[in-house]
TrEMBL record:
Protein name: TTI2 protein
PANTHER family for the chain: TELO2-INTERACTING PROTEIN 2
UniProt gene name: Tti2
GO cellular component labels: cytosol; nucleus; TTT Hsp90 cochaperone complex
InterPro entries reported for this sequence: Tti2
Protein family membership: Belongs to the TTI2 family.
Length: 130
C-alpha cells in the first residue's frame, strides 16, 4: 500500500511469492493465505495497468485456490473457508475490472461445467460484478 504504483518494480518477484503462498495451506486458521490474498488485492488495486499481462497465471492460481478450499477436508473452520473464498472472489472481480472483462469471458466455460455449488457461487459473483 505504501509503495503504490511503484510496486510494479517488484511485480515479478512478488508474483512468485503470492503464487507460492496460495498453493499451500498453512493450517486451520489459514493466516498466510488470507494475508497473501489481501496483498494480492492491494497489488491489483495499485498496479492495475500491469495486471492484464499477469492474468493467465493469477487466474489459474485463484481458481485452484477456490477448488482447493472447497475440496480440502482438514480442520479449517467454516468461517475461515468462507473468508478465503470471499477474498479470492474479490481478487477475481478486481482482475476482471482491470482486464476490461477478460476474466468473465474466460470463466464462462468454467462456470457452466463446474458442479460444485460453492465454487459456482464464487464464479457467479464474478460474472455478475459490474
Amino acid at each position: 500500500s505504501r509503495l503504490g504504483i511503484l510496486i510494479v518494480r517488484h511485480l515479478k518477484r512478488l508474483e512468485r511469492v503470492i503464487l507460492g503462498y496460495l498453493e499451500v495451506s498453512d493450517g486451520p486458521e489459514e493466516e498466510a493465505r488470507l494475508g497473501i490474498l489481501e496483498t494480492l488485492q492491494c497489488t491489483i488495486e495499485h498496479a492495475w495497468p500491469r495486471m492484464p499481462c499477469r492474468l493467465p497465471v493469477l487466474l489459474k492460481a485463484l481458481l485452484r485456490l477456490l477448488w482447493d478450499v472447497h475440496t480440502e477436508r482438514g480442520p479449517t473452520p467454516e468461517p475461515v473457508r468462507a473468508a478465503l473464498l470471499h477474498r479470492a472472489t474479490q481478487c477475481l472481480i478486481l482482475l476482471d475490472r482491470c482486464s476490461q472483462g477478460q476474466v468473465k469471458v474466460l470463466l464462462e466455460g468454467v462456470h457452466s461445467s463446474c458442479g460444485e455449488q460453492r465454487v459456482r457461487e464464487c464464479l457467479r459473483k464474478v460474472q455478475e460484478s459490474s
